[in-house]
Amino acid sequence: MEWYDFFLYGTAAALIFDKQFFPDLSPAAGTLAAFSTLAVGFVARPLGGLVFGHFGDRLGRRSTLVVSLVMMGLGSTLIGAVPSYGSIGLWAPVLLVLLRVVQGIGLGGEGAGATLMSMEHAPEGRRNLYAGFPQMGTPAGLVLANLIFLATNSLAGHATFTAWAWRIPFLLSFVLVGVGLVVRLRVTESPSFDRARQEDEVVRFPLADALKAGLPRLAVTLLAVVANSAVAYVFMVFTLSYGTKHLGFDQQFLVLGVSGAAVLWFVSIPVWTKIADRKGRRTLFIGGSVAILLWCAVFFPLLDTGSRATALLALAGMGLIIPVTHCVQGAIIADTFPVRVRYSGTSLVLQIGAVLGGGLAPMISSALLGSGDSSTGVTWYLVGMCALSLVGAVALFRMVPETPVERAPLVPETAGKA
Protein backbone atom coordinates (compact mmCIF):
# COMPACT_ATOMS: atom_id res chain seq x y z
CA MET A 1 0.00 0.00 0.00
CA GLU A 2 2.87 2.38 0.67
CA TRP A 3 4.44 1.50 -2.66
CA TYR A 4 1.07 2.18 -4.28
CA ASP A 5 1.32 5.73 -2.96
CA PHE A 6 4.91 6.15 -4.08
CA PHE A 7 4.47 4.73 -7.58
CA LEU A 8 1.23 6.57 -8.15
CA TYR A 9 3.23 9.75 -7.79
CA GLY A 10 5.84 8.46 -10.23
CA THR A 11 3.21 7.66 -12.88
CA ALA A 12 1.55 11.03 -12.42
CA ALA A 13 4.92 12.79 -12.59
CA ALA A 14 5.64 11.09 -15.92
CA LEU A 15 2.26 11.76 -17.51
CA ILE A 16 0.33 14.53 -15.69
CA PHE A 17 2.29 16.84 -13.39
CA ASP A 18 4.20 18.74 -16.09
CA LYS A 19 0.86 20.11 -17.35
CA GLN A 20 -0.74 20.64 -13.94
CA PHE A 21 2.11 22.21 -12.02
CA PHE A 22 4.65 23.44 -14.62
CA PRO A 23 2.52 24.63 -17.58
CA ASP A 24 4.76 27.59 -18.44
CA LEU A 25 7.77 25.38 -19.20
CA SER A 26 8.58 23.62 -22.46
CA PRO A 27 7.58 19.94 -22.65
CA ALA A 28 11.16 18.79 -21.99
CA ALA A 29 11.69 21.25 -19.13
CA GLY A 30 8.26 20.45 -17.66
CA THR A 31 9.05 16.74 -17.63
CA LEU A 32 12.42 17.42 -16.00
CA ALA A 33 10.74 19.62 -13.36
CA ALA A 34 8.12 16.93 -12.63
CA PHE A 35 10.83 14.31 -12.22
CA SER A 36 12.68 16.72 -9.92
CA THR A 37 9.73 16.65 -7.52
CA LEU A 38 9.89 12.85 -7.75
CA ALA A 39 13.54 13.04 -6.68
CA VAL A 40 12.64 15.19 -3.67
CA GLY A 41 10.84 12.24 -2.13
CA PHE A 42 14.00 10.18 -2.44
CA VAL A 43 16.11 12.89 -0.84
CA ALA A 44 13.75 12.80 2.15
CA ARG A 45 13.97 9.02 2.46
CA PRO A 46 17.35 8.94 4.31
CA LEU A 47 15.90 11.35 6.88
CA GLY A 48 12.95 9.03 7.36
CA GLY A 49 15.30 6.07 7.53
CA LEU A 50 17.40 7.70 10.25
CA VAL A 51 14.41 8.81 12.34
CA PHE A 52 12.42 5.60 12.06
CA GLY A 53 15.57 3.48 12.27
CA HIS A 54 16.51 5.14 15.56
CA PHE A 55 13.12 4.53 17.13
CA GLY A 56 12.82 1.10 15.53
CA ASP A 57 16.02 0.03 17.30
CA ARG A 58 15.05 1.81 20.52
CA LEU A 59 11.32 1.13 20.83
CA GLY A 60 10.58 -1.68 18.40
CA ARG A 61 9.87 -2.38 14.74
CA ARG A 62 6.08 -2.65 14.99
CA SER A 63 5.15 0.82 16.26
CA THR A 64 7.45 2.63 13.83
CA LEU A 65 5.95 0.76 10.88
CA VAL A 66 2.45 1.84 11.91
CA VAL A 67 3.55 5.51 11.93
CA SER A 68 5.28 5.20 8.55
CA LEU A 69 2.09 3.82 6.98
CA VAL A 70 0.02 6.71 8.31
CA MET A 71 2.53 9.29 7.01
CA MET A 72 2.54 7.81 3.52
CA GLY A 73 -1.24 7.68 3.33
CA LEU A 74 -1.67 11.21 4.66
CA GLY A 75 0.87 12.62 2.21
CA SER A 76 -0.72 10.89 -0.79
CA THR A 77 -4.27 11.86 0.15
CA LEU A 78 -3.31 15.52 0.46
CA ILE A 79 -1.47 15.44 -2.89
CA GLY A 80 -4.85 14.64 -4.43
CA ALA A 81 -6.19 17.88 -2.92
CA VAL A 82 -3.39 20.28 -3.98
CA PRO A 83 -4.74 22.99 -6.35
CA SER A 84 -3.11 23.26 -9.76
CA TYR A 85 -0.72 26.00 -10.90
CA GLY A 86 -3.61 27.74 -12.65
CA SER A 87 -5.41 28.16 -9.32
CA ILE A 88 -2.71 29.22 -6.85
CA GLY A 89 0.37 29.77 -8.99
CA LEU A 90 3.77 29.02 -7.48
CA TRP A 91 2.25 27.67 -4.27
CA ALA A 92 1.02 24.62 -6.19
CA PRO A 93 4.48 23.10 -6.87
CA VAL A 94 5.65 24.24 -3.40
CA LEU A 95 2.86 22.29 -1.69
CA LEU A 96 3.51 19.35 -3.99
CA VAL A 97 7.15 19.26 -2.93
CA LEU A 98 6.30 19.52 0.78
CA LEU A 99 3.88 16.60 0.58
CA ARG A 100 6.43 14.66 -1.43
CA VAL A 101 8.83 15.14 1.50
CA VAL A 102 6.20 13.67 3.84
CA GLN A 103 5.89 10.67 1.51
CA GLY A 104 9.65 10.24 1.38
CA ILE A 105 10.06 10.34 5.16
CA GLY A 106 7.30 7.75 5.58
CA LEU A 107 8.71 5.38 3.00
CA GLY A 108 12.23 5.89 4.36
CA GLY A 109 11.09 4.23 7.57
CA GLU A 110 9.26 1.46 5.78
CA GLY A 111 11.78 -0.21 3.48
CA ALA A 112 14.18 -1.56 6.07
CA GLY A 113 11.60 -2.06 8.80
CA ALA A 114 9.28 -4.30 6.81
CA THR A 115 12.18 -6.47 5.62
CA LEU A 116 13.53 -6.83 9.16
CA MET A 117 10.13 -7.68 10.63
CA SER A 118 9.65 -10.46 8.11
CA MET A 119 13.23 -11.74 8.19
CA GLU A 120 13.37 -11.77 11.99
CA HIS A 121 10.20 -13.90 12.09
CA ALA A 122 11.61 -16.44 9.61
CA PRO A 123 11.58 -20.17 10.45
CA GLU A 124 14.64 -22.32 9.90
CA GLY A 125 15.95 -22.47 6.35
CA ARG A 126 13.53 -19.88 4.93
CA ARG A 127 15.20 -16.63 5.89
CA ASN A 128 15.72 -15.34 2.33
CA LEU A 129 12.17 -16.31 1.37
CA TYR A 130 10.70 -14.38 4.29
CA ALA A 131 12.94 -11.37 3.69
CA GLY A 132 11.73 -11.39 0.07
CA PHE A 133 8.03 -11.13 0.92
CA PRO A 134 8.10 -7.36 1.70
CA GLN A 135 9.96 -6.84 -1.61
CA MET A 136 6.86 -8.21 -3.34
CA GLY A 137 5.10 -5.05 -2.19
CA THR A 138 7.13 -3.04 -4.71
CA PRO A 139 5.72 -4.61 -7.90
CA ALA A 140 2.31 -5.17 -6.27
CA GLY A 141 2.09 -1.47 -5.43
CA LEU A 142 3.15 -0.56 -8.96
CA VAL A 143 0.47 -2.78 -10.53
CA LEU A 144 -2.22 -1.45 -8.20
CA ALA A 145 -1.25 2.17 -8.86
CA ASN A 146 -1.13 1.71 -12.63
CA LEU A 147 -4.43 -0.18 -12.84
CA ILE A 148 -6.31 2.37 -10.74
CA PHE A 149 -4.65 5.13 -12.77
CA LEU A 150 -5.79 3.52 -16.03
CA ALA A 151 -9.28 2.69 -14.75
CA THR A 152 -9.85 6.28 -13.63
CA ASN A 153 -8.57 7.58 -16.96
CA SER A 154 -10.85 5.23 -18.87
CA LEU A 155 -13.98 5.99 -16.84
CA ALA A 156 -13.49 9.76 -16.71
CA GLY A 157 -12.13 10.28 -20.22
CA HIS A 158 -8.68 11.63 -21.03
CA ALA A 159 -9.63 15.33 -20.95
CA THR A 160 -11.44 15.07 -17.61
CA PHE A 161 -8.71 12.88 -16.17
CA THR A 162 -5.98 15.36 -17.12
CA ALA A 163 -8.02 18.26 -15.76
CA TRP A 164 -8.98 16.89 -12.32
CA ALA A 165 -9.83 13.17 -12.16
CA TRP A 166 -6.15 12.24 -11.74
CA ARG A 167 -6.72 13.23 -8.11
CA ILE A 168 -9.06 10.30 -7.43
CA PRO A 169 -6.34 7.59 -7.15
CA PHE A 170 -4.49 9.77 -4.64
CA LEU A 171 -7.61 10.34 -2.55
CA LEU A 172 -8.22 6.57 -2.49
CA SER A 173 -5.03 6.27 -0.40
CA PHE A 174 -7.10 7.21 2.62
CA VAL A 175 -9.14 4.01 2.23
CA LEU A 176 -6.07 1.85 1.65
CA VAL A 177 -4.38 3.17 4.79
CA GLY A 178 -7.38 2.08 6.85
CA VAL A 179 -7.07 -1.45 5.47
CA GLY A 180 -3.30 -1.42 6.04
CA LEU A 181 -3.66 -0.36 9.66
CA VAL A 182 -6.06 -3.21 10.39
CA VAL A 183 -3.42 -5.64 9.12
CA ARG A 184 -0.36 -4.00 10.63
CA LEU A 185 -1.77 -3.54 14.12
CA ARG A 186 -2.26 -7.31 14.33
CA VAL A 187 1.42 -8.09 13.64
CA THR A 188 3.48 -9.10 16.69
CA GLU A 189 6.82 -7.50 17.51
CA SER A 190 10.00 -8.97 16.03
CA PRO A 191 11.24 -11.91 18.16
CA SER A 192 14.82 -10.76 17.62
CA PHE A 193 14.10 -7.26 18.93
CA ASP A 194 12.17 -8.68 21.90
CA ARG A 195 15.15 -10.84 22.79
CA ALA A 196 17.58 -7.91 22.43
CA ARG A 197 15.37 -5.85 24.73
CA GLN A 198 15.08 -8.63 27.31
CA GLU A 199 18.86 -9.03 27.35
CA ASP A 200 19.34 -5.26 27.73
CA GLU A 201 21.14 -4.90 24.39
CA VAL A 202 19.18 -1.82 23.27
CA VAL A 203 21.64 1.06 22.75
CA ARG A 204 21.07 4.78 23.16
CA PHE A 205 22.40 5.87 19.74
CA PRO A 206 21.95 2.94 17.34
CA LEU A 207 23.28 4.75 14.26
CA ALA A 208 26.63 5.48 15.93
CA ASP A 209 27.05 1.79 16.71
CA ALA A 210 25.92 0.82 13.21
CA LEU A 211 28.68 2.95 11.68
CA LYS A 212 31.24 0.80 13.48
CA ALA A 213 30.81 -1.69 10.62
CA GLY A 214 33.42 0.51 8.94
CA LEU A 215 33.40 2.84 5.93
CA PRO A 216 34.87 0.33 3.43
CA ARG A 217 32.19 -2.28 4.11
CA LEU A 218 29.39 0.31 4.16
CA ALA A 219 30.64 1.83 0.90
CA VAL A 220 30.81 -1.44 -1.05
CA THR A 221 27.43 -2.53 0.34
CA LEU A 222 25.92 0.74 -0.87
CA LEU A 223 27.61 0.37 -4.24
CA ALA A 224 26.30 -3.18 -4.63
CA VAL A 225 22.63 -2.19 -4.33
CA VAL A 226 22.51 1.21 -6.05
CA ALA A 227 22.03 -0.06 -9.62
CA ASN A 228 18.88 -2.05 -8.92
CA SER A 229 17.09 1.07 -7.76
CA ALA A 230 18.29 3.11 -10.75
CA VAL A 231 17.26 0.50 -13.31
CA ALA A 232 13.90 -0.11 -11.63
CA TYR A 233 12.89 3.55 -11.68
CA VAL A 234 13.99 4.09 -15.25
CA PHE A 235 11.92 1.05 -16.19
CA MET A 236 8.87 2.01 -14.08
CA VAL A 237 8.80 5.80 -14.51
CA PHE A 238 11.06 7.19 -17.22
CA THR A 239 9.93 4.59 -19.77
CA LEU A 240 6.38 5.96 -19.59
CA SER A 241 7.48 9.48 -20.47
CA TYR A 242 10.04 8.43 -23.09
CA GLY A 243 7.75 5.93 -24.80
CA THR A 244 4.82 8.32 -25.17
CA LYS A 245 6.68 11.52 -26.06
CA HIS A 246 9.53 10.17 -28.19
CA LEU A 247 8.44 6.80 -29.57
CA GLY A 248 4.76 7.43 -30.17
CA PHE A 249 3.42 4.58 -28.02
CA ASP A 250 0.04 5.34 -26.48
CA GLN A 251 -0.13 5.85 -22.74
CA GLN A 252 -2.41 2.89 -22.03
CA PHE A 253 -0.18 0.44 -23.88
CA LEU A 254 2.91 1.45 -21.91
CA VAL A 255 1.21 1.51 -18.52
CA LEU A 256 -0.25 -1.94 -19.16
CA GLY A 257 3.11 -3.17 -20.46
CA VAL A 258 4.95 -1.99 -17.35
CA SER A 259 2.17 -3.43 -15.16
CA GLY A 260 2.42 -6.81 -16.89
CA ALA A 261 6.18 -6.83 -16.34
CA ALA A 262 5.59 -5.95 -12.68
CA VAL A 263 3.35 -9.02 -12.38
CA LEU A 264 6.29 -11.13 -13.57
CA TRP A 265 8.46 -9.34 -11.02
CA PHE A 266 5.93 -10.13 -8.29
CA VAL A 267 5.45 -13.84 -9.01
CA SER A 268 9.16 -14.52 -9.56
CA ILE A 269 10.36 -13.20 -6.18
CA PRO A 270 9.41 -16.36 -4.21
CA VAL A 271 11.16 -18.45 -6.87
CA TRP A 272 14.41 -16.48 -6.61
CA THR A 273 14.35 -16.37 -2.80
CA LYS A 274 13.83 -20.13 -2.58
CA ILE A 275 16.87 -20.56 -4.81
CA ALA A 276 18.80 -18.23 -2.50
CA ASP A 277 17.82 -20.37 0.51
CA ARG A 278 19.07 -23.49 -1.25
CA LYS A 279 22.12 -22.24 -3.16
CA GLY A 280 23.12 -19.10 -1.25
CA ARG A 281 22.13 -15.51 -1.85
CA ARG A 282 25.62 -14.43 -2.95
CA THR A 283 25.65 -16.62 -6.04
CA LEU A 284 22.16 -15.43 -6.93
CA PHE A 285 23.07 -11.77 -6.43
CA ILE A 286 26.19 -11.92 -8.60
CA GLY A 287 24.35 -13.77 -11.36
CA GLY A 288 21.51 -11.26 -11.21
CA SER A 289 23.94 -8.34 -11.35
CA VAL A 290 25.47 -9.68 -14.56
CA ALA A 291 22.04 -10.35 -16.09
CA ILE A 292 20.69 -6.88 -15.37
CA LEU A 293 23.80 -5.27 -16.87
CA LEU A 294 23.39 -7.23 -20.10
CA TRP A 295 19.67 -6.49 -20.36
CA CYS A 296 20.20 -2.77 -19.79
CA ALA A 297 22.50 -2.78 -22.83
CA VAL A 298 19.63 -3.92 -25.06
CA PHE A 299 16.57 -2.48 -23.28
CA PHE A 300 16.32 0.90 -25.01
CA PRO A 301 17.49 -0.39 -28.41
CA LEU A 302 14.57 -2.84 -28.24
CA LEU A 303 12.14 -0.05 -27.32
CA ASP A 304 13.53 2.17 -30.07
CA THR A 305 12.43 -0.28 -32.77
CA GLY A 306 8.94 1.14 -32.31
CA SER A 307 7.47 -2.37 -32.42
CA ARG A 308 4.89 -3.15 -29.76
CA ALA A 309 5.92 -6.81 -29.64
CA THR A 310 9.59 -5.91 -29.17
CA ALA A 311 8.71 -3.30 -26.56
CA LEU A 312 6.74 -5.91 -24.59
CA LEU A 313 9.75 -8.22 -24.78
CA ALA A 314 11.99 -5.46 -23.41
CA LEU A 315 9.60 -4.74 -20.53
CA ALA A 316 9.05 -8.42 -19.71
CA GLY A 317 12.80 -8.95 -19.55
CA MET A 318 13.07 -6.22 -16.95
CA GLY A 319 10.22 -7.78 -14.99
CA LEU A 320 12.08 -11.09 -14.79
CA ILE A 321 15.61 -9.80 -14.16
CA ILE A 322 15.17 -6.90 -11.71
CA PRO A 323 13.82 -9.15 -8.90
CA VAL A 324 16.89 -11.39 -8.93
CA THR A 325 18.94 -8.82 -7.01
CA HIS A 326 16.01 -6.90 -5.55
CA CYS A 327 14.63 -9.86 -3.58
CA VAL A 328 17.80 -10.51 -1.54
CA GLN A 329 19.40 -7.08 -1.25
CA GLY A 330 17.52 -6.27 1.97
CA ALA A 331 18.83 -9.40 3.67
CA ILE A 332 22.36 -8.72 2.39
CA ILE A 333 22.30 -5.21 3.86
CA ALA A 334 20.74 -6.36 7.15
CA ASP A 335 23.52 -8.90 7.72
CA THR A 336 25.99 -6.02 7.90
CA PHE A 337 24.61 -5.09 11.33
CA PRO A 338 23.80 -6.81 14.67
CA VAL A 339 20.16 -6.89 15.82
CA ARG A 340 20.45 -4.00 18.25
CA VAL A 341 21.33 -1.50 15.47
CA ARG A 342 20.04 -3.33 12.40
CA TYR A 343 17.09 -1.02 11.67
CA SER A 344 19.25 2.12 11.74
CA GLY A 345 22.10 0.66 9.72
CA THR A 346 19.94 -1.01 7.10
CA SER A 347 17.84 2.13 6.65
CA LEU A 348 20.95 4.25 6.16
CA VAL A 349 22.38 2.07 3.38
CA LEU A 350 19.06 1.29 1.73
CA GLN A 351 17.79 4.86 1.57
CA ILE A 352 21.06 6.46 0.45
CA GLY A 353 21.18 3.83 -2.27
CA ALA A 354 17.62 4.73 -3.23
CA VAL A 355 18.54 8.43 -3.55
CA LEU A 356 21.68 7.84 -5.61
CA GLY A 357 19.91 5.22 -7.71
CA GLY A 358 16.16 5.54 -8.13
CA GLY A 359 15.71 9.14 -6.98
CA LEU A 360 18.07 10.61 -9.54
CA ALA A 361 17.61 8.09 -12.36
CA PRO A 362 14.50 9.52 -14.11
CA MET A 363 15.88 13.06 -13.84
CA ILE A 364 19.34 12.08 -15.11
CA SER A 365 17.76 10.07 -17.93
CA SER A 366 15.62 13.05 -18.96
CA ALA A 367 18.66 15.33 -18.91
CA LEU A 368 20.71 12.87 -20.99
CA LEU A 369 17.87 12.62 -23.47
CA GLY A 370 17.41 16.37 -23.65
CA SER A 371 15.21 17.52 -26.48
CA GLY A 372 16.49 14.84 -28.86
CA ASP A 373 15.27 11.32 -29.48
CA SER A 374 18.45 9.27 -28.93
CA SER A 375 18.46 6.99 -25.91
CA THR A 376 22.15 6.08 -26.23
CA GLY A 377 23.19 8.24 -23.28
CA VAL A 378 20.54 6.66 -21.06
CA THR A 379 21.70 3.18 -22.04
CA TRP A 380 25.32 3.97 -21.17
CA TYR A 381 24.20 5.50 -17.88
CA LEU A 382 22.35 2.32 -16.87
CA VAL A 383 25.16 0.02 -18.01
CA GLY A 384 27.65 2.12 -16.04
CA MET A 385 25.53 1.95 -12.89
CA CYS A 386 25.20 -1.83 -13.25
CA ALA A 387 28.95 -2.23 -13.72
CA LEU A 388 29.62 -0.23 -10.55
CA SER A 389 27.19 -2.37 -8.58
CA LEU A 390 28.72 -5.58 -9.90
CA VAL A 391 32.16 -4.39 -8.77
CA GLY A 392 30.70 -3.42 -5.39
CA ALA A 393 29.07 -6.84 -4.92
CA VAL A 394 32.24 -8.73 -5.79
CA ALA A 395 34.26 -6.52 -3.41
CA LEU A 396 31.71 -6.96 -0.62
CA PHE A 397 31.62 -10.74 -0.87
CA ARG A 398 35.42 -10.97 -0.98
CA MET A 399 35.72 -8.64 1.99
CA VAL A 400 33.33 -10.66 4.17
CA PRO A 401 33.59 -14.48 4.10
CA GLU A 402 30.28 -16.29 3.71
CA THR A 403 28.99 -17.80 6.95
CA PRO A 404 26.29 -20.40 7.69
CA VAL A 405 23.97 -17.76 9.14
CA GLU A 406 23.34 -16.40 5.63
CA ARG A 407 21.39 -19.57 4.88
CA ALA A 408 20.24 -20.36 8.40
CA PRO A 409 17.34 -18.91 10.44
CA LEU A 410 18.02 -15.60 12.16
CA VAL A 411 19.81 -16.03 15.49
CA PRO A 412 20.36 -12.71 17.34
CA GLU A 413 23.70 -13.70 18.90
CA THR A 414 25.31 -14.48 15.53
CA ALA A 415 23.42 -12.29 13.05
CA GLY A 416 25.86 -9.41 13.39
CA LYS A 417 28.80 -11.64 12.40
CA ALA A 418 27.40 -12.44 8.95
UniProtKB/TrEMBL annotation:
Any Pfam family the entry gives: MFS_1
Record's keyword terms, sorted: Cell membrane, Membrane, Transmembrane, Transmembrane helix, Transport
Subcellular location(s) of the protein: Cell membrane
Membrane topology term: Multi-pass membrane protein
Membrane-spanning intervals of the chain: 32-52, 64-82, 88-108, 129-152, 164-187, 218-241, 253-272, 284-303, 309-328, 348-372, 378-397
The Major facilitator superfamily (MFS) profile domain, residue ranges: 1-404
InterPro entries in the record: MFS, MFS_dom, MFS_trans_sf
Superkingdom, natural source: Bacteria
Coiled-coil blocks: none
Protein's name in the database: MFS transporter
Taxon lineage: Bacteria, Bacillati, Actinomycetota, Actinomycetes, Kitasatosporales
